[in-house]
Design brief:
- By secondary structure, this protein is an alpha/beta fold.
- It is 41% helix and 24% strand.
- It has a single domain, classed as Mannitol-specific EII, Chain A.
- Strands 1, 2, 3, 4, 5 and 6 form a six-stranded mixed sheet that branches.
- α1 packs across α2.
- The longest helix is centred in the N-terminal third of the chain and has 14 residues.
Length: 148
């Protein structure tokens, strides 16, 4: 599965103003739920938060990949936010996070889930890409960077 199959420009937000990790997860949950007729914001948020309770999804270098599963979800969905001000996220390098890509998968999508997370982690380890994601102004340009 390609990133272009799980992300759309309407689930990308630039320069958001969340003041905490929880607020960032709420924004991501809203973006995902708004893109689905069968999901609510609260169930998406609960899924993302449940995973965070197991351990932070902060990768380091200002990036986090929150993810979760839903029993009744039928497709994999992603959302991206870039925050104006980084927030404490308990990342492995103890640096605050300003770039988040959330992933929500159906309960049974184990292999697909791991493949997408691996692809995203590899993509977000590219310092040049991170610089571009932090400076681009349009959601279309960010979409193209993430899916290219």
């Amino acid at each position: 599965m390609q990133i272009s199959e799980i992300l759309s420009t309407d689930r990308i937000r630039c320069d958001t103003n969340e003041a905490s990790k929880k607020a960032a997860l709420e924004t991501l949950a809203t973006l995902i739920a708004d893109g689905s007729s069968s999901l609510t914001q609260s169930e998406v948020f609960d899924s993302l938060l449940a995973r965070e309770r197991l351990g932070s999804t902060g990768l380091g270098h200002g990036v986090a990949l929150p993810h979760g599963r839903l029993n009744h979800g039928d497709k994999t969905m992603g959302a991206f936010i870039r925050m104006q001000t980084p927030v404490d996220y308990d990342a492995i390098d103890m640096q605050p996070v300003d770039i988040l890509f959330a992933l929500l998968v159906p309960q049974e999508s184990t292999d697909e889930h791991l493949q997408i997370l691996s692809r995203l982690a590899e993509k977000f380890s590219d310092a040049g890409l991170l610089d571009q994601l932090r400076t681009e102004k349009s959601t279309e340009a960010i979409f193209n960077l993430l899916t290219g």
